Structure formats: structure tokens, C-alpha cells
Amino acid sequence: MTHSDTDQTRAPARRNFVQQLDLDLRLLGMIGAFAILCIGFDLLTGGRFLTPRNIFNLTIQTVSVAIMATGMVFVIVTRNIDLSVGALLATCSAVMAMTQTQWLPNIFGLELGNPLIPWITIAFGLFVGALIGSFHGWLVGYLTIPAFIVTLGGLLVWRNVGWYLTSGKTIGPLDPTFMKFGGINGTLGETGSWILGLIAVAAALYALYSARRNKQKHGFTVKPLWAEGVLAGLTAAVILGFVATLNAYEIPTRKLKRMFEARGEVMPEGFTQAYGIPISVLVLIFVAIAMTVLARRTRLGRYIFATGGNPDAAELSGINTRWLTVKIFALMGTLCALSAVVASARLANHSNDIGTLDELRVIAAAVIGGTALSGGVGTIYGAILGALIMQSLQSGMAMVGVDAPLQNIVVGAVLVLAVLIDIQYRKRAGAAK
Amino acid sequence: MTSTKRTNGGTPLVEMRDMCIAFGGVHAVDHVSVDLYPGEVVGLLGHNGAGKSTLIKMLSGAYQADSGEILINGEKADIQNPRDARSYNIETIYQTLALADNLDAASNLFLGRELVTPLGFVDEDAMEAESRKIMARLNPNFQKFAEPVSALSGGQRQSVAIARAVYFDARILIMDEPTAALGPHETQMVSELIQQLKAEGIGIFLISHDIHDVLELCDRASVMKNGKLVGTVDVDDVTDDDLLSMIILGKKPGEAAA
Ligand SMILES: Nc1ncnc2c1ncn2[C@@H]1O[C@H](COP(=O)(O)OP(=O)(O)OP(=O)(O)O)[C@@H](O)[C@H]1O
Ligand SMILES: [Mg+2]
Q: Which of A157, A201, B105, B126 suits A36 as a labelling partner, its CA being 20 to 30 A distant?
């Protein structure tokens, strides 16, 4: 065994600026690609792409796919696939639409507008999503039917169960509180957004600090202090920059006037109000943090990645991989239901074709985000960034005026290209080690 | 070599009685009985495909026997899966190592038994610190703690698998060709480790193709051929030629060819 080579790679002389920061190169590459994409579209549209308004819209359009993509990471990491997420979203959306407009008012006698309705609806929707997901997981884990087949069947089944639940009708209008989860109808406002931004900065700084202290406690080498400083500064700048951008998008004067009129007041001259962070984005941030903690800091997350890397080894280490499969699909189902809340709230009603083709967007987002179909590898932030890249590409091309068929051709080509680049990158990174 | 530590009349740590398992039509293990006493090393010998790994996998919970029974400390043990085996303090180094290639050494070492913080979160740094300690004992040159084990050499991977088996206070240790990929120095360290564990009263099943290793490290040797047990002998009573003829011809010393 040779060990001299290990010592060399650890020598400080060979570490450059980026290595000292200890950042994920792959992540940097994706951020770079995303930045080029945004700037490119901005130039092509004459500055219309990078406006607060468009960034706001991009963000709220991405949320639903991004939420599901985080769950898809776990599914793909364990060498499974879920083709039914779009259909599952439709069924959950149908269930929730019926719950709030028909079942609760007609069967349980809760009057429309009762403050309990949205919460009971969401809880029930999440439960149904988890239940259907667990059923898929049971078929895959315990009855050992390939996930591809189970969820291909699920794609047909759940899309049409949704249809039967609503008899194919569009259901709406939805509960006003429920609709706040959709994006434009529910935002934190300027002050609320700044407060949240500052809390986020404080939390990020504390996380960096406690990670460093923990490493020192065990006597491991830590990054130089200046590198930590740069990292902290970057993090804070990104968070606050995001808040500032969303706060720069002001509610149109006409809409504000109507809001005042609805309250029976007159709008003062020169009054302005910004949207700020949408509640749906808040939901996504919460999901992202929870899923990242789950992946990195819990046993369940460990087992997911270990099972993806070597299912036999996981089994021999005493991990119950069948039960694990059930949990992963249950989580995926729950996230589909959460996406259903956001998607139907954004559209203000439930329609039959909600979530159509979402399975492809979600899988593409996870894969562009670096989740390997061979299993064992994937990150939550990658999948979210992947969803953002997909959405930007699509809206950007629409803005530039690219024909719809060509848009799809480009998206398809980009997906394949992204995976090719990823494979090449991994080969290099593997060889370098 | 010291004489066997078996005290006549004592209860064996492990007794596998009349074990059978078949895959399709192949009788991989056919009515085999072996036992193991505390502080004893029992070698398992046999040609490729003789059924050695399959036999110990029934003890480690990886396979369920078709028939036969396993007694631990004289009591019937019910081992349905690897978790059950671990609960009897049985630790195994598999021939295939059973590592998750995408995880680093510490994650593999603690797989299924992660160290957690008071809040219940996985404590990566504590696990790495513990891994460094145990690896310092086994293979002081080992440095690759941050890389996934796919980036390790065969011997380094084997060191990780050994570390995992000895870290968790095993009482019964199964080693399936533990030194197959190790260099001479590392092999020597594993031999010393085996002596040390033996002195602590741990019982060890050692599968090996190296007859000299077996003669040096083991108290008894059980030889298998085509899924059947040829016989079990005290290593002090036999020569390497005797063992060879048991493995190749399938006959016990002093017996006519089977
Ligand atoms: N999971 C399985 N499915 C089918 N056949 C198996 C399985 N495991 C083992 N066998 C068969 O059982 C027999 C014994 O295999 P085993 O792995 O126990 O041999 P071994 O003595 O450990 O050999 P080696 O020295 O090569 O490791 C072989 O014929 C093998 O093909
Ligand atoms: Mg074997």
C-alpha cells in the first residue's frame, strides 16, 4: 500500500483559493451555468429577464417542482424511480379541492370560509399523499416489483383516480387562506421579509461557527479563518440580495387601490407596497432545510445513501432496506401532496391536467442537480438548483419568443448534455483523488 | 503454540448443529456441525465453493438455514437477519467486505450503529475521531478518512471492514479471508490482533486458504469439501500435509480415502 500520495494531496502548497474555501466544485459549476443562462436571457430580452418581477415569477413557478425534486433525490439515490409524481399531485390536489369545497361543508357541516377548513384540508391531503406513497413503497420493497413498473402503473391510476374524484370538473374557487400558499396571493411583505432574511443570516452564521467549533473540538484541521470569513460574507450577501430583489417587486398601484377599496379606505397618494417573500418559497426553504438535515444528519439519511451505494452491504449492516423503501416512497408521496397545495393554490383552482408531465420535470431537476441514476449520489440543493435551471430555461425561451416545440427540443437536449458533463466531471474528480 | 483453551465439559460459545442449506439443487452446506469455545480460534478450510462462506453466513444472519440449529452459550438462538446476529454480539468480516462504496470510512464503520448527538443527529465528527483511533491500532498508515471507500485500495478497504468488526466489542467474530488483500506488514498486524482478541476471550471463526496461517493462529481446524464436513482436528495433532490431504482428498488423517 502506498501512502505517500495521500500525504501529498493534503499538502497545503497544492491547495488553491477555491480548495481552501472547501466549496463543492460541482455546485459552483451549476451556479456558473445558471448565472450564464440568466445573463444570456437578460441580454436577449433587453433587460426583461432579470427584473424583480420576473425573478419573483420564476421563483414561484419553480416551487412545486422543486419540492418534489427533493424527494426524488432520495428515490433515485436508492436506485428507484418515481414516474407517478405528477399523477399523485393531481390526485392529492383533487382530494384537497373536494375536501375544502364539498366534503367538509356538505358532509361535516363546516361552513365555507370556516378558518379550520384550509388546515384540515392540508392535513388530510398530506395524509393521503403519504398513504399512496407508502403503498407504492410496499409494492416495491416487500413485493419486489420494480419501482419503474409500480409507478408507471401509478401514473395511469392516480391521474384518473383524480379525474373520478372530481368527475373531470375544474373545482374552484379554493379557500382564500389555502390560496395564500400559491405565491402571489400570500407574501410576507417588506418588513417581514427583511426580518426573515436577518434570521436566516444569523442561522447560517451560527451553523458555520458551530461546525468549525465541533471540528476543532476533535482536533481536525479547519479552514483558515479568512476562508470562513469569505464564506460567511458570501452566504449573507446571497440571502440578503434575494430578499432585496423580492422586496423590490412592488404591488401594482391599481391592485393596491382595489385592496384599499375592499377595506373601504382610500389609498394615500404615492403609497407603495412590495410583495416580499412568497409563502410558497418559505415552504420550499423549509422543505429544503428539513430534507438536507434528514440526508446529512439523521440515521435515516445515512441508510438511504448506504442502501443506494451497496444494498447488500446495507442489509448485512442490519438496515431493514424494505421498510426503508416504504419510508422513502411515503416521503415522496407527502411531498407530492405539499406540491399539490402550492400548485393548486397558485392556479386558484383544481383542474384535471394539473401536474401533467411534472414527473419528467422532477426527474430532470434531480438529475441535472447531480443525482446519479446508478444510485448512492445526490444532493438536495442540487435538485432545487436543477429545478430552477429548468424553469429559467423554459420561461427564458418563452420570453425570447422561441416556438414551443423548439423549447422542448432544447430542454431535452440540455438534460442529456447536463448528464454527459456530469459523467465527465466525475471521471476527472475520481482520477484526481 | 499453546494447547487448546477448550475446557473439557464447558459450554461452547457457539454450536452449529446439523446445518443444511441448498440453493436450487446445490447443497451448499450439507449436515455440517461445528462449534467454538471462548478464547478459541477455529479455522475453516476447504476448496473454492466448499461452502465455508455459506456456513458462516447462516451464523451472521445473512442466510436462513433450511434445517439445523444454532446454540449460543448452550441456548437455542433465533437468528433471522443480521440485526439478530448483532444482538448476540456476533460480528462478521465478509469475504466481499460489504462496504458502501459511496460513503467514507467512518460512515461504513458505524453503518447501522451511528453515534448520535444528544438531539439524535448523526455525529460525524465523533465518528471520524473514533475511526481514527481504531485505525491507528490496525493500520497506522491509513489516512484516507474523507474519501469514499471506492477511492481506497483493496487492503485499505479490508482494514475498514476489520475495524468495523472489532470496534463493537464482539464476543463471536467471523473472519472470512480477512487478510486476502493485505500486505505482509498489515497481515502481521491482523495476526497480532487475533492473538489479542483471543486472549480477551473472544471466539473466532477464521476462514483462510493459507494452511500455515491456520496452523499458526488456530486451535482447531474444520475442513469442508463439497458442502460436507470432512472433519475437525486439533492443529497440534496434525501436519500441513494432513490438512492438505483433508482438503484435497477429503479424508481425515489415518483414515482410508473417503
Ligand atoms: N446466494 C447463492 N445462490 C446460489 N448459490 C450459492 C449462493 N451462495 C453460495 N452458493 C453456492 O454454494 C456453494 C458454496 O459457496 P461458498 O461461497 O460457501 O464457498 P466457499 O467455501 O466460501 O468458497 P471460496 O473459498 O471460493 O470463498 C457454491 O457452489 C456456490 O456456488
Ligand atoms: Mg467464501
A: A201
Spacing of C-alpha A146 from chain mean position: 26
Taking contacts as CB-CB distances below 8 angstroms, the residues of chain A near B141 are 1, 3
| Residue-number span of the structural domain to which B159 is assigned | 100-168
Among B136, B168, B200, identify where a domain stops: B168
Determine whether the shortest distance from the Cβ of B226 to ligand 1 is under 6 A.
no
Answer for the pair B222, B232: CB distance below 8 angstroms, yes or no: yes
| pTM listed for this prediction | 0.90
Per-residue pLDDT at A127: 98
- Same domain, yes or no: B243 and B134: no
What kind of architecture, by CATH, is found in domain A24-185+286-432? Answer: Orthogonal Bundle (1.10)
Are B85 and B176 members of one domain?
Answer: yes
Distance from CA of A408 to the nearest CA of B (A): 34
The answer on B129 and B106 residing in a single domain is yes
Verify that B134 and B30 share a domain, yes or no: no
pLDDT at A82 over 50: yes
- Ligand nearest the Cα of residue B56 is 1
Helix (H, G, I), strand (E, B) or coil at B206: strand
**Total beta-carbon pairs less than 8 A apart between chain A and chain B:** 99
Nearest atom (ligand 1) to Cα of B227 = 14
Distance of CA A26 to the CA centre of its chain: 18
Shortest distance between the Cα of B67 and any Cα of chain A, in A, equals: 21
The full DSSP string for B1-52 is: -PPP-PPTTPPPSEEEEEEEEEETTEEEEEEEEEEE-TT-EEEEEESTTSSH
Number of domains observed in the structure of chain B: 2
Q: Give me the interface pTM, i.e. the ipTM.
A: 0.90
